Amino acid sequence: MDISEKLFAIEEIKQLKGRYFRLMDTKQWDALRSVFCDDATFDARASLSIDGAGESGRAAESNDWVYQGGDNIIAFIRGAIGNSRTIHHGHCHEVEILADDEACGVIAMEDQILTEDGSVLTLHGCGHYHETYRRVNGAWRIHTSRITRLQVNLG
Amino acid sequence: MDISEKLFAIEEIKQLKGRYFRLMDTKQWDALRSVFCDDATFDARASLSIDGAGESGRAAESNDWVYQGGDNIIAFIRGAIGNSRTIHHGHCHEVEILADDEACGVIAMEDQILTEDGSVLTLHGCGHYHETYRRVNGAWRIHTSRITRLQVNLG
Amino acid sequence: MDISEKLFAIEEIKQLKGRYFRLMDTKQWDALRSVFCDDATFDARASLSIDGAGESGRAAESNDWVYQGGDNIIAFIRGAIGNSRTIHHGHCHEVEILADDEACGVIAMEDQILTEDGSVLTLHGCGHYHETYRRVNGAWRIHTSRITRLQVNLG
Asked: Are A155 and A85 spatial neighbours (Cβ–Cβ below 8 Å)?
């Protein structure tokens, strides 16, 4: 890949992650499916990335939420937040192209989960997604995604 | 446009939106005018993008805030937030170049409006801008902008 | 620089700032050192960018936090937040390439500082970094960084 192709791939991967956030928060589940590879892995255990963090930060650590396969990942996400109002924001996506069809990246995030009527904030956290991407039939998709957390508060 | 020109246009449009947020929050109204086309449309009705959302989410829906023309848009924005302290953040701008001088995009946002002394948060919302852009005399500008909301709280 | 080289430099500078936030929040101090030039300046006085802002906004203004040199900057940052839990987010980085190895930029930010156990939010602010960058031995680094604030609350 020349420099322009590399930059274009980086831009496509940034937009891929933009769609991930937007399609999740607007509950477009079928379209959300297309951001993941068929053999994707999603690790939502959300272990803390800072030693010594307190109880509020460790809240999500007891979960064992690792999902294999694009369909299972979407089923998990729908089960977790299907009827909740959610807001996910991504910040400063750092993408590295590793090969013609392989890339990795880290993106900071903030996530909020509210009750269906928006009246109660049940989860408010910040952290990072650590990801790998693959280009399949010309379209970049998320191949692996692992969440680490700086902070999480449960309402 | 070749791939580099397309990427450059995408970058220019991202910076255009960066200026929109920054010039608004630092109250540089004359400079803010220049991010809009003369015949721009700004639809701030902020209808919710999720069915079944509750009262707090629907709060802004009763407004009929659609403004035509760059000058009217700036007058509206100044009237709405001129003396308030505001913080607007944009996330994961997805830009698509449609033609040499035409583009469209979606960007996630969070907006906060506080009283002049910053002591009371009067509005705190999240949502998306759905926009089109035009290149006029070599400079990209916002041609149409429509807000949808995931959530809004009025203080 | 041609258009592709310019875009690549912009992307490298955006990733530089992404590392700045991420390495600070994950407390990787040695790696954080590498984002700054040896002769960098960091102006953290955080004066408000809006006239007439109230007391909560002016809280940080009495500090005289200007640091010279990459080592001193890291020592200052470690001293200020070494044991605290922190979350820093950057938004809409506007980067301009001025010469082959010189650039400037503005990036919106939100910063949160919490106690070590994450239970109390001691500072929550928003504002902008106004920066210059230099390419040293092929790697972009922050040469000068100055914070302005839209809002800050001390807990």
From this structure: no
Q: Contact at 8 Å (CB) between B91 and A21?
A: yes
Q: Taking CB atoms and an 8 Å cutoff, what residues of chain C touch B116?
A: 52-54
Contact assignment for A53 to C85 by CB distance below 8 Å: yes
Total count of domains within chain C: 1
The answer to whether the CB of B147 falls within 8 A of the CB of B108 is no
Strands (E), B29-84: 36-48, 66-68
Q: Which domain holds residue B32?
A: 3-154
What's the residue count for chain A? 155
Q: Which residues pair with A95 in a beta bridge?
A: A105
Where are the extended beta strands (E) located within chain B? 36-48, 66-68, 85-99, 102-114, 121-136, 139-154
Residue B58: both structure tokens together: 């629907």
How many residues appear in chain B?
Answer: 155
CB contact under 8 A, B8 and C10: no
Predicted structure pTM score: 0.92
Query: Which of chain C's residues have a Cβ under 8 Å away from the Cβ of A4?
Result: 4, 7
pLDDT at A57 over 80: no
Query: What ipTM did this prediction achieve?
Result: 0.91
Q: Which amino acid is at B110?
A: E
Residues belonging to chain C: 155
Inter-chain touch B89–C106, beta carbons under 8 Å = no
A14 → chain C, closest CA residue:
C11
Give helix C3-25 / helix A3-25 axis angle, nearest 10°: 50
CB B133, CB B104: distance < 8 Å? yes
User: What's the CA gap between C126 and C49, in Å, rounded?
Assistant: 11
Binding partners of A (≥3 Cβ pairs within 8 A): B, C
Distance from CA of A47 to the nearest CA of B (A): 24
B92–A87: do the CB atoms touch at under 8 Å? no
Strand order in the sheet with B121-136: B66-68, B36-48, B139-154, B121-136, B102-114, B85-99
Pick among C58, C89, C130, C150 to test the B interface (most B CBs inside 10 A): C150
Does residue C36 surpass a pLDDT of 70? yes
User: A107 to chain B nearest CA, in Å?
Assistant: 11
Q: How far is A62 from chain C (nearest CA, A)?
A: 18
Q: How far apart are CA A31 and CA C140, in angstroms?
A: 38
CATH, residue A67: 3.10.450.50
- C106 has a chain B CB within 8 A of its CB: yes
Can you give the pLDDT at residue B58?
41
Average pLDDT, chain B: 90
A81 membership: H or E segment, kind and range: helix A70-81
**Which residue in chain B has the smallest CA separation from C109?**
B89
Yes or no, beta carbons of A54 and C7 under 8 Å apart: no
